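Weekly puzzle thread! Below is a chain. First person to post its structure in token form gets bragging rights.
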Amino acid sequence: MRVLAALSGGVDSAVAAARAVDAGHDVVGVHMALSRSRDQFRTGSRGCCSIEDAGDARRAADVLGIPYYVWDLSEQFEETVVADFLTEYAAGRTPNPCVRCNEHIKFAALLDKAVALGFDAVCTGHYARIETLPDGSRALHRAADPAKDQSYVLAVMGPERLARAMFPLGDVSSKDVTRAEAAARGLSVSTKPDSYDICFVADGDTQGFLRERLGSQPGPVVDTAGEVVGTHDGAYAYTVGQRRGLALGRPAPDGRPRYVLSVEPVRRTVVVGSAEELRVGAIVGDEAVWFDAPVGEVACHVQVRAHGAPVGARVRASADGAVEAVIDDDADLRGVAPGQSVVVYDGSRVLGQATVTWTRPVGAAQPAAMACGPRTDVHP
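Winning reply:
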């Protein structure tokens, strides 16, 4: 097959490309340039889009003996990932930019361009497994290494894009194995630190980035009784479940820590409460993407953070793209924010994904039928 290998400049994508070459594919390497300004993205290894990465990717391609190109996807990245990030926070929601990057850039803009150029598949260094089912369709599964599993951020890609994806590292038992393989192949990135944080927030200060882009929007921090207990410079800088950085002027009556329960951007208000009030009894999401949509109500597991623990739930889907997950009574799920991704699993297999629109606290009355709009008895 003709395979386009996405080379980020890190060790994972380099080893994935090497394995594609070993498998006998006709491989071409490409690095995605996501910013036209060298100052916009951080230097060093904190993010996956640092200015050194293009050079590391080129050197990896040279070692592998494959052609190498740089594709400018900065406009698409700004218009989709960065714009979505700002819009969601401004609306009081908490987006995951890595999910949006996989959706709009790596498995939309990149894949569409690859297919137009005659490539059969796109190869990346994601840790996830693909299994072919008896009917010839493909299923997305968790990686062999739970610590590195990235199926959560890949769930948004859907079956059509999965059909043209390659994840050669899905069966790797640990990141140490990947590094050892890179060293054995003579790849200089074998000891390069893992990337983390948001690549387009150059100094790692997300609140500062939001404040610079969205401006100062001061307002009150209130408790669940409506009493003002502090102030803020922008409700968009807070997320459900947050404890640190609240700078509350009045402690809770019982002296216990308080957490963000909801963000209300129209009123510029942040609502805080106890840890117990963060417990979630049900999640509703929309814009669902399914690999295998449940029929009726099914028992499965849901995960709401990239490295969060899955919890048991009863999930049902509707034809309009809405999803409801009623969390098992013995599960302790807390701090779920609108805008997060909720991914549905059957064992290691990904069934689908949706974007959280609202949550129902534990103990609140259960709605008689699924809804996907905001309710007055739930966390917004």
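Puzzle host: Confirmed. Bonus trivia for everyone else. The first strand starts at residue 2 and ends at 6.
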